[in-house]
Every structure is written in structure tokens, then in C-alpha cells.
Amino acid sequence: MSNTRRVYKIKKTKKKRRKRLWIFLVPLLVLGLGASTYAATLYMKAQNVFNDSYDPVEASAKRSETVDPLKDNFSILFIGIDDSDDRDYKGNSRSDALMLATFNKDQKSIKLLSIPRDSYVYVPAKGVTTKINSAHAAGGPKATMDTVEELFDIPVDYYVRMNFNAFIDVVDSLDGIEVDVPYEINELDSHDKKNAIHLEEGLQTVDGEEALAFARTRKKDSDIQRGERQQEVLKAIMTKATSPGALTKYSGVMEAVGDNMTTNLQFSQIKGFLKYITSDNGLNLESVKLEGQDLTINGTYYYQLNETSVANTKLLLQSHLNLGPKEDSNQTEAVQSQ
């Protein structure tokens, strides 16, 4: 990691903390481990760095029993924090990206929902309706989890919080990822240098800085398309990480991430992800969309979520977690095609 880029310190410590591993890459690493000395070394390293990132929060009030990813359906909220030398918030910053994933053990399927950062929702930690990204500034991961629970009436069991800039090094450690750039992009780099990143339209391999620019730009569209691009980046990283020969890159990936992640998932629980990756039909990951429209209140921009879209998404996620009525295939198609 470049010495010029300041990492986001989530927990203060006098001892240098071990490098963190991005959550979705841990089960991929476990999958590739065999009897070799190299694999055994990687396994131990992954276990150590993952345990070091553990930061528990109070369990969801919507759960009457403890959730076990090895046996139960569960959910994870991915919280991306956009912090850099020019954005030193000295504490909890606003979230820059929110993605909610629900996991169904019987279907071996994952539903992935991007939540626009300017969504106008009720934030329990503040007691007001405002932008959803302010929840993290008000109370960190727990306040953000409570806000998402309030919005969709489902338990949010786990969180992964990470400096959004950190994935630059993950992408570089994988020697780039392939994305489909929808239009010509001129965007800031991670140091906020204007027009430092230039991408032409079309399918191409991008490095870490380019991937970050691709994921966060919204000059020619909206937060909805921005969320779709973030999902595309996540899927591209997972695809590259499971490709032949990727195992040899995992050590670099672990070293790349640095002091940028906390989670309430324990390493022993990561085995619960394996059934979703080793399915006979491959990784079954479906994107879910939220509809809405622009809203301005007293000169401040918000994204007003469509009530019908929220209601349909709520039923879809509840059903996927087996918390509500059984999922109707026609309704599922309607929600995912919104």
C-alpha cells in the first residue's frame, strides 16, 4: 500500500495490527487450501488476520436465537467508507456505499441489494428521517444496521465495514478485474486529483484506481446505476478470485488490505459461506434493485425511495430469509427487473 495514502484507523492500538482480509475472499481462500505447506501457511495467516479484525456488536433485536451461518439463513451488511487524506473525518464518517446480502441455505443463493447513500429514510440513532449515510456518522455499524432493519423489517446479522479505497490494493493484487464501462469516464483518483482517471466506453480490464473510479462515478447517471456498478465490481473481484491460479495471489491480497476492516463475523463462521460457493450450479448471486426519484428539501438533495419498491423488496428479503410468506416467482422477477 502506498505510503502517501493514509489508512482509515477503525480501532486505536499501540501494537501494529495484522493485515485484514476482505470478507468474501476468506471463504475463497479456504476453498483452495489443500495439504501443501503453502496452503497450510495461507490458512493460518487468514485465520490470524480475520480474528484480529473481529469487533462484535449487539445482536439484532429481531432475532430470538443466535444465528449460525453453518446452519441458518443470515444477512450481512457491507459498509463502504470513503476516507482519505482529504477526507479525514477523525471518527465515524458517513458511509459511501451500502450493500445488503441475504443468504438462503436451502437454495444456496445470495440476494444482493445496493442501497443508495442519499436514501431518505428514518434513522433510529438520530430520531429523524434523513440520508441513510448519516447513520454511520451517528453511531457506526450498529446504527447503520438498525437503520436497514427499520427500513426492511428484517434482522441484519453481520456487518463488514471497510475503507472503500482499500479495495484498490485488492484489485491490484489480483492483477486487475474486467468490467463493462458504460460511457467515457473522467474521474478523481484516490487522492481526489481531478480527471486523473480516464476510461473509454466498453469491456476492459481495469486496475485498482480505475476500478474505484468506475464504482463511484455518478456524473452521467444516478446512485442507482452507481450501486449497480459497485455490484459489478464485487462480482468481478469474486470471479477473478476464483479463477485458475488465483490461490497464488491470496497472500498479496491479504497484505494489500491493511488496517481497513472490522466485522462481527468470526473466522469459524466463514465455513458457512462454502456451500454458496461450492454449489453444483456455481455461485448463485442475484441483484435486487430499489426504485425511487430525486427529492430536494430546503436545498438539500435526497433520494426518495418508491414505497411500492421498498414494500416488494421487503417481502422478497423476508421470504429469502424464510421470515415471511414463501417467495412468489412472479413477484421475484418483478422486483429484480425494476
Secondary-structure blueprint:
Blueprint: H1 25-32, H2 37-52, E1 74-81, E2 95-104, E3 109-115, E4 120-123, E5 128-131, H3 134-152, E6 158-163, H4 167-173, E7 177-181, E8 185-187, E9 197-199, E10 202-206, H5 208-216, H6 223-241, H7 250-257, E11 261-263, H8 274-277, E12 284-288, E13 292-297, E14 300-305, H9 307-320, H10 329-336
Parallel strand pairs: 1-6, 3-12
Antiparallel strand pairs: 1-2, 2-3, 4-5, 6-11, 7-10, 8-9, 13-14
Structure description:
The protein is 33% helix and 22% strand. The protein is built from ten helices and 14 strands. By secondary structure, it is an alpha+beta fold. It has a six-stranded mixed β-sheet. The protein has a two-stranded antiparallel sheet with strand order 4-5. Strands 7-10 form a two-stranded antiparallel ribbon. It has helices at residues 25-32, 37-52, 134-152, 167-173, 208-216, 223-241, 250-257, 274-277, 307-320, 329-336; strands at residues 74-81, 95-104, 109-115, 120-123, 128-131, 158-163, 177-181, 185-187, 197-199, 202-206, 261-263, 284-288, 292-297, 300-305. β13 (292-297) and β14 form a beta hairpin. It starts with 24 loop residues before the first helix and ends with a helix. The longest helix has 19 residues, at 134-152. The chain is globular, with a radius of gyration of 19 Å. Mean pLDDT is 81; it is low at 1-23 and 28-35.
